[in-house]
Every structure is written in C-alpha cells, then in structure tokens.
Amino acid sequence: MSSSTDRGRRLLPLLPNHPLGRSAVTCKFRCGDACAHEAPNTSDNTYFGDVVGEVVRRRGLLKAGAVLAVAGAGAGLVGTGTAAAAPRVDRDRDIDVDLGGGRRKDGLNFTAVAPNTEDRVVVPDGYEQSVVIRWGDPVLPGAPKFDFDRQTAAAQAGQFGYNNDFCGLVPLGWGDRWLMVSNHEYTTEEFMFKGWRADATTREQVEIAWAAHGMSVVLVERDRRSGRLVAKVDRRYNRRVTVKSEFRLTGPAAGSDLLKTSADPTGTRVLGTLNNCAGGVTPWGTILSGEENFNQYFANAGSVTDPVAKQRLSRYGLSGGASQRRWEEFDERFDVAREPNEVNRFGWVVEIDPLDPGSTPVKHTALGRFKHEGANVIIARDGRVVAYMGDDERFDYMYKFVSDERYKPGSSKHAREHNRKLLDRGTLYVAKFRGDSPAAEFDGSGGLPSDGEFDGTGEWIPLASGNRSFVPGFTAEEVYVFTRLAADAVGPTKMDRPEDVEPNPRNRRVYAALTNNTDRGKAGKEGATEPNPRVGNRHGHVLELEERRGDNTATAFSWKLLLVCGDPNSADTYFGGYDKSQVSPISCPDNVAFDSRGNLWISTDGNALGSNDGLFAIPVEGRYRGRVKQFLTVPRGAETCGPVVEDDFVLVSVQHPGEVDGASADTPLSHWPDGGATQPRPAVVAAWKKDKGRICG
C-alpha cells in the first residue's frame, strides 16, 4: 500500500466504485443512471444479416483498397490471441517514426505516466501543471470571490460553471491570447450543497444549478516566463451561457409544430442548453457543443398515454415520474405532462461565437436530435463542410452531415456570416458498418479474426436533406426531431456508445471513441460484431474510418479498429498490431484530439482497470502505430475531458473530482485542487514542459 501522503498530497482510500469505474453519484447526476435502465434502442437492426453472402466478394475489394496497413514492431503477434507480458513502456524520450516519406520525430518524447490512484494531476517527469480556472472563479466583471458555504445564483451566473467537459481555444490573433470556451455538462448537487436532499430542494439551489450549467467564454493568456496559462476577467469577451440564456433554433425543423411551446409559439426560441458534453472548434472560429443526456432533466413522462408520444419519449430515454433534481417544481417547462414539446428543444448541436459576445447562440436542427456527444467538422476537398457525430448510448449510431454550400476562407464579416449558416442546409447520414470476416469468427471474446485485424467497409445512409425525407413513413421534420427513430428504420449498425467522433486534419481519417457497452451479448441484446467484437464490453475501443478516395463527402468508407482497449496482458485487447508489452493500459476512451503531427490523443471516462482516468497519446502512422503512452492522470473520482493539444502545452478539463462512493459535500474525500480542508472543485488544468519547449515536435 502507498503511504497516506505523496509529495504532500493525501491519497484517497480505495472505495468500492460503481460498475465501469464510476461512482454511483456520478452515474445518478451525469446521465440519470442510464446504464441502470434498459437501452432505449429496441429496434432489430441485425448486423450480419446482409454480410454473410457478401464476405467473399467484399474481401477482395477490401484487400485491394486497404491503405491503413499496420507496420513494424509486434506485427508477428497480431493473430496469436495470446496474452502479452506485463505492460512496460519504453523509456526512450526521442522516438523516430517512419511515415513512408522519410523519417521524422512523432513528438511523443515524454516518459509515460504510470497508472495510479493519487488525488492530484500527475504529469510526466520534466513537466509542470497548474489550474487555469476552477468552479466558482470569477468570469464576468463584478462577480464575487467563490464562497462554497454562501453561494448564490447571482454569484454563480458570473462565475465559472460546474463540471466542465469540452474545452476549446479560439485564438485572438495577437500574442499568446485565446478565448477558451468550456462546456458545463451537469451539476452534482450532493457535492455542491451540504445536506442536499432531492425532496427538500430549494429554489435558490435550483437556480444555482441553472447558472452552473451551460458554457463559459474566458480570455486566457500565456505567461511566457513561467509557461502558465492565466484566466482573465475580461469585460469585452468573457461570457456565461446558462439554462436561462436565449438560443435560436435554425435549420429545416425550426418553426416546426413539434418544437412549439406555450412560451414559444413560434418554435424558434429556446431558453438554455443542457448537459453539454464534447464539442469542436470550427474553421470559422466558433464552437460546436453537443447536448447529451438531456432526458434526465424532464419529469412525468410516465404519465403520457398517447402511444406515438410515448414511443418517442421512450426512444430518448424518458420515463417515470419526478426528476432527480426536481426542476419541474420550479419551472413547468421541465414537466413533460404540462409542456410536451419542451423536451424536443434539447438534444441538438449548439453553436456559439465567442468572437461576437453579443450574438445569440443557435441550435442546428439539420444535424439531427439525439444524445450528441459533440460535433467536429472538416472542410472537404470541394469546399463543403462535413460534421461527424456520435450518439452516446448503448447500441446507438454514428452520423455525419454534409453541407450544401461551401466554406468561404478568411475572417471578414461576410465570410463569417456565410460560414455560420453552413450547418443549416445539407444532408444528414447514419452509418452502416460491414465486416470482412465471417460472423462465426466473432464469439464475443474479442479475439482477432483469421485475417489478423478488425476491418471492413461501410456506407452512409441518407436520412434527410432540407425538406426532403429519405426515410419511408417520416416527414423531414420528424427525421430531424426524432432522429433515433428515423435511423432505426433504415438499419444502421448498433455501436458501443459512440462518443467523440473527430476527423484528423493531417490524414483526413475519422476516429471514433466507442467507450463501452456492458449490455452487448446479454439475453435479448445484440452480440459481438466485427466493429464491436466483445460481449460485456467494459473497456471500449477506438475505430478508424477512411472515406472512399479520401473524400469526406463520400457515401462509402473502409474502417479498422485501431485499439481494443483494456489491460495489455489480456488476450482480448489489441493495439493496432503494436507490441502489447510496450503500451500503457487504457480503458473507456471518451474524447479525442490531435496534435500538429497528427498523433491521436485520447481522454478516458470511467477507467475500469482500477486506476485513475487519464490522457493518452497514440501515433496512427508508421511503425509505432498503436503505441499508447499515458501523458497524465487526473485525481481519483475525476474524469479526463476536453483535451486541447498545442505544440507547447496541453489543456484538460478535470470533471467531478472526488466523486467516489461514500463522499459528499458533508464528507469530502478529496480536497483537490486547493488542498487543506477545501471542497473538491472541477477545473481546467494546463500542462507544459519545464523548459517551455515543444511537446509535439
């Protein structure tokens, strides 16, 4: 056992955790105990039904078109299915990677951090880290200093919100200055208020929670002498967006009868954004944010008797009576029985322009409505914009959107106004994956098929474009508002919680974090498939998708699994063909990002290996492809979110620190980041090299 202190920091007791490494309180407040309920997708989308007859024909096509070949170290181990030696990460600090066009460094020249359960952020030797901003720190001028025991809604509305997830930087164009935009996914009332009880919630507590949700826009500056990033209270740019902020609904479903309420008979204006998870920075300098587990905020869906309405609510995970937070007692729009359409106004991709603090953020109906983890865009070779998205639910789908119009380069007012409308007109697709190996080779153990890798082809099935629906029995408005049901009807592939889905700007391939799915293979549930090869999938995997001919607007693609995560000692893990004795263990991939070299960085959520969540870097090219190295870990009970990877610093969002079973505001078991007897506070953390050199280069 470790001693009770380490470098002056107290270690946390190893308390029993909820399945998948999360505490019960995190599951309760973050997603409404989603995994404790039946998965909402009850459709019969048989994965291999249309595959077996095509295996032989497609195998030849796949082999001819494969361009993602695994090379180098450990290739001889790919098909063995045997356990590797205990994980050991090479201590070399300067690694050359052969990318086919000569040799150059991949930039991952740090010593891997070992798995741990410490109550601090652990970074590699030779690196430093510090908090940029934490829950309750002032954002707007005049906001008071944070006082945990005397917090008010008015104070919180001007302070940094709770449980920050996605983090994005928009450069201001001069010096080391950026606008940092953070999502505030959810509130954990048991850690915000001493003695909190759902049945005794006060209006002030509810309004504090409303103000702690949403987004923060904060000016940050780099101190070149120390390397630190410092948050500034800026009168011009800083901004808070909350549950009370106004949003515009745009795109083809705006104004639909399905979106009209008594407070908004136009169906075009919404108050607030909820459960904002991941997101992305657009080429035109705005932020996209995904509304994820919005269903948990709405009450009394169980009282709905109309069979059509009931089916729609059920498919989005709504059922039962009172909500966990009891918001419906203070605002009737959260009561489905009284405002049946209000819930339809959440579950969208949100766009906010941090460079225009007076602008009204929008919700893009053309991108569909589901539990958006986020949305990330790339400019296709013909100039159109392509957005990739995942629906973070067991057995749900991956999507993409292709704009009708083309991106206008530049930062002029005309160009920015044009580009901010690109996501309102285009075609929405859902993904169907096909494997190139016989179904009999997938018994759920996670073992590699006989051809030595998990791979195949797929297609993007169109759902709607503008006012035209491609789904029989659904109008275009119904496709956008009830996207899950429309997708069910066209037979896409059920995936293991597709969370962050992002295109790599260096190679144009798309990387998807499939976080986990412990329901796969259970009685009455879909079993193993080539893109989801394990039953009871606790550790998740990472999928790599390449559009036909490298064209992101294409409707056909090939795919591979880059990682099948877990303990490298286990036979059911795969690291891109790389030697498993040379990798860091990784579990439950969540968010992805890329450095300037095109290396993939992954943050984790719910590590099921018994250690803290962390941030990992993986080359995706050359002989070190699949070599996972852990860059940092976050405090116990916390999740690693929103990675930003610059050449000379990294940002991570440390979400729900100290949320371990047995803890609460009355009995905190963590005092990160401020130490002493303080309460734990979610925060954004920066890490950089002590010599202020380049991390990626």
TrEMBL record:
PROSITE patterns: TAT. InterPro entries: PhoX (IPR008557), TAT_signal (IPR006311). This is PhoX family protein. Residues 515-537 are annotated as: Disordered. Pfam families: PhoX. Residues 519-528 have a biased composition (Basic and acidic residues).
